Amino acid sequence: MSLITVGTMAFDAIETPFGKTDKIVGGSATYVAYAASNFVKPIQQVSIVGYDFPVEELEELKSRGVQLDGVEIVPDKKSFFWSGRYHADMNSRDTLVTDLNVLADFNPQIPDSYQGAEFLMLGNLVPAVQLSVIRQLKQRPRLIVMDTMNFWMEVALPDLEEVLKHVDILLVNDAEARQLTGQFSLVKAAKSILQMGPKYLIIKKGEHGALLFDKDSVFFAPALPLEDVFDPTGAGDTFAGGFVGHLAKTGDISFENMKRAIIVGSAMASFCVEKFGATRLREITKTDIEARIQQFKDLVNFEIELL
Amino acid sequence: MSLITVGTMAFDAIETPFGKTDKIVGGSATYVAYAASNFVKPIQQVSIVGYDFPVEELEELKSRGVQLDGVEIVPDKKSFFWSGRYHADMNSRDTLVTDLNVLADFNPQIPDSYQGAEFLMLGNLVPAVQLSVIRQLKQRPRLIVMDTMNFWMEVALPDLEEVLKHVDILLVNDAEARQLTGQFSLVKAAKSILQMGPKYLIIKKGEHGALLFDKDSVFFAPALPLEDVFDPTGAGDTFAGGFVGHLAKTGDISFENMKRAIIVGSAMASFCVEKFGATRLREITKTDIEARIQQFKDLVNFEIELL
Fold first, then answer.
1. A213 vs chain B: nearest CA distance in angstroms?
2. Predicted model pTM
3. Rounded distance between C-alpha atoms, residue A228 and residue B188, angstroms
4. Cβ contacts from A onto B, under 8 A
5. Which of A15, A17, A57, B177 has its CA 20 to 30 A from that of A303?
6. Does residue A293 belong to any structural domain of this protein?
């Protein structure tokens, strides 16, 4: 089933305790596309890049079933660029450079060929842009998933609250769930967010896994314990891509299937952090993914007779 | 199967964001006994208390199958007393008062009636005392589990390293695992600790769950997402009590059964934090425990067809 993904395609320069990169390809929609394309085709990408974005990267994505009709290429501007340095614990980072470049003008137009898509993944963007995409779709997708971040809670909260009324699933991290609701308890924060519009909430806790809530239930997916997290850049977007990719592949949007989708997302994210940027995502095969999902089963599944 | 538990029986005065208590009964061996007594009898307690320790508490423990022959009652001294205040996040706390009292003289003598026990749970204590207990046992227990803390890594590391050579399972929290090994990665820290003596390692991560390692495998148990953690005091000891209680009940010390034991420990700890001190542990029934374990199954178990 078709999936529209909206987000950035960009350059990142990354420093971690393990090394540093020059400008490499990144951006939320890039990671989502790499992850989701293991599960579903076509992926209908909506983004904006400058003249400097590598043609080979676009070709690579196309070869994976990613349609680029919705990717605007601006001939006289550069692509969005971010540079950051991770601290030793890999849970915090300093932004060194943010050059919006083409992103300052991002006003996505949904191509006619994308109309009728059943799944929509809204990457972290200005809430008004996320809302504009939803409004351009003549038929509401069966499932709308959105990511966001603390910055929009600070500078565009009313817009963010409006988008929340139109989506099915919100993806945030634990700090963002707390900031959005003023609740320290994630269970209370979840209750509060589920009153704001979304029917489901995923709280990402990085190395501590992820929680899925609906109004009656909660499910927990661990992160895989790794010897080293080499570079966490894009892990959240890769998680989102695996998650929505699995749902779009199966066409099943039940809570039970969302559990599986979160495990798939966690498995994909566990690959992402093994090398810089999207490097590892370009290498892995279906066999690697199967083996990794089996590791997640072994990691948490248990059988117990009640007393 | 019989279980010896060694640790403190004490008074605590606790402040949390939800309220404060006067002196209430606490201590590692108290929590272990309350938790484990749901699964196995007898529990052969080794501890030391002063003249002020409530007789009713000792009677309550006896009624749960806890033998007190190894609990020394010092007629002219007070029981160990600790007072602390938790911060808003409940993950950190300030110690306000530590009065060792009887604990300064703790030199446990294992009663003859305890000889031949198959399971030994060494609560967090001076490593030399833990070692003395092991050496007093004429027949080595089938399974020795030990808890410890960062303090002993700072002031008694050689003794601690010696005890580690004699135990099967070490229980520590994530910060302690890192401190003991100098490794930030918990996977690397686990490899390092499994070279020091223990065949199994449990790393407790509080609200983020717990990891069980042996040299080949890893298992992850989540913490139950709770609306409020009312008071975390004793949660780690309660976890240990549920864990070793399940193993002693079943007599099965395979990795597969340790997985179940960690879930049982996590379930018991999730009760502990619901009220001050051991209050909740005195209230719960087998039915409550069964229902809680079912919640853990629902929380993490998933079925997935590979791709």
1. 10
2. 0.94
3. 8
4. 101
5. B177
6. yes
